[in-house]
Automatic annotation (TrEMBL):
Biological source species: Ruania alkalisoli
Keyword Transferase tagged: yes
GO molecular function: protein-N-terminal-alanine acetyltransferase activity
Family: Belongs to the acetyltransferase family. RimJ subfamily.
Annotated Gene Ontology cellular component terms: cytoplasm
Keyword hit for Acyltransferase: yes
Keywords per UniProt: Acyltransferase, Transferase
Protein name: GNAT family N-acetyltransferase
Domain N-acetyltransferase: 29-197
């Protein structure tokens, strides 16, 4: 990787990988792009957590006409990162893939914003992994992509995710009725956000200072 490729808002997900490894190796958490070689571990993790994740994951009211293979999914995520429209990272804890954090809907122009979503395996939930991963992803948005606003939307019933945004100090902005289609119906979500000028040195630093 060239020195030039590591600098500025145009930096892709691949330079982020190097920074995360350097900063968070002592915390036993690493964020990195999903790779084709992750297929067996990633799919097994998803199968084991199907019931745990189903109440919170978005679905589509339209009949499925296309279901991408894992290879296609990885390729689509890499293309989005190259285009600067989205970034998907696996959470690797003690060398094991345990979840994923995704930066989606990156908007430039006068908005300069993105939305963060995440999921984690039930067997490691509650260990502080998700707040740290979300903090890292949000800091990436502000300090590497140069974005102004980061938003997270959560089902009112999802107590675990509500604890994540509370721990990180996200500001609640209100209820979005029927915001996403989940499990056959349009589900309400509570909306949370932070702007760049509200986070000081960043959320990872805020967590370290606790």
């Amino acid at each position: 990787m060239s020195r030039r490729s590591r600098q500025g808002p145009s930096c892709t997900a691949w330079c982020w990988r190097a920074e995360v490894e350097l900063e968070l190796v002592a915390r036993e958490l690493r964020l990195r792009p999903l790779r084709r070689a992750d297929r067996r571990a990633w799919e097994a993790l998803r199968r084991r957590n199907a019931a745990w994740l189903a109440p919170w994951e978005a679905t589509s009211p339209e009949p499925a006409t296309y279901r991408p293979t894992f290879r296609q999914y990885v390729r689509d995520q890499a293309r989005a990162a190259k285009e600067g429209s989205g970034y998907a990272f696996v959470m690797e804890y003690r060398g094991e893939i345990v979840g994923q954090v995704t930066i989606a809907g990156v908007v430039r122009g006068s908005l300069q914003a993105a939305t963060i979503g995440y999921w984690i395996s039930e067997h490691v939930a509650g260990r502080g992994i998700t707040p740290l991963a979300v903090a890292m992803a949000a800091d990436f948005c502000w300090f590497r992509l140069g974005l102004h606003r980061v938003e997270i939307n959560i089902r009112p019933e999802n107590a675990a995710s509500l604890r994540v945004v509370a721990k990180l100090g996200f500001r609640e902005e209100g209820l979005r009725p029927g915001y996403l289609h989940i499990q056959g119906r349009w589900a309400d979500h509570r909306s949370f956000a932070l702007n760049r000028d509200e986070v000081g040195e960043g959320l990872a630093a805020r967590l370290r200072g606790r």
